[in-house]
Write a structure and sequence with these properties.
Keywords: Membrane, Transmembrane, Transmembrane helix
Helix content: over 70%
Number of strands: 0
Largest sheet: none
Number of domains: 1
Mean pLDDT: 90
Strand content: under 5%
Distance between the termini: 76 Å
Number of helices: 6
Low-confidence stretches: none
Radius of gyration: 33 Å
Shape: rod-shaped
Oligomer: single chain
Length: 178
């Protein structure tokens, strides 16, 4: 047997083995990739089962916050009975800031755009209250009901609730979760 015949016989034996080993390697690699994708999908599904309720709760709490600080609701909830306009102004500001601080953690679960709208709504309400307060002549002598009246007048002239846009954004985002 000469060396070329030996080499040819060797190639006839080794070449099919290499082809079969390569095919097995490719199939095994595809299997591992698909298995990894399946595990990632399972992990995402498990994560969404945990985070979806938290996100929905965050949207609910932010919606409640916006409803509670809307001028119509906060004025009814925090009656001005017997207070001066200056005291009522301070009370309104404190309540809005306390409500906001109570809901700060919700920003973890909603989009940054929605959270920016929530912050802007809070600032809009505070601005409306401050504008009404500073529009009063001698607020230390006037009753809180006069401030409430001015705030409501400002709300009517602006023709838009300062929390309405943020509330709309939050509701649209919450609806996208379904």
């Amino acid at each position: 047997m000469d060396s070329t015949t030996y080499l040819f016989d060797l190639l006839k034996t080794i070449l099919p083995a290499i082809i079969v080993a390569g095919a097995i390697f490719l199939l095994f690699r595809q299997y591992l990739e698909k298995e990894q994708q399946r595990r990632l999908i399972e992990l995402r599904l498990d994560t969404s089962k945990t985070t979806l309720p938290l996100r929905l709760q965050a949207y609910e709490r932010v919606t409640l916050f916006l409803e509670r600080i809307s001028p119509n609701n906060i004025l009814v909830r925090l009656g001005s009975g017997g207070q001066t306009a200056a005291d009522y102004h301070r009370l309104l500001q404190q309540e809005i800031r306390a409500e906001f601080e109570h809901n700060l953690s919700q920003q973890l679960y909603i989009t940054p755009e929605a959270w920016d709208q929530v912050k802007q709504a809070k600032e809009n309400v505070l601005t409306m209250i401050n504008r009404a307060f500073h529009g009063l002549s001698n607020p230390g002598q006037l009753r809180g009901t006069e401030l409430a009246k001015r705030i409501l007048e400002g709300l009517m002239t602006d023709a838009a609730d300062p929390t309405a846009h943020a509330l709309d954004v939050v509701k649209r985002e919450a609806a996208r979760l379904f």
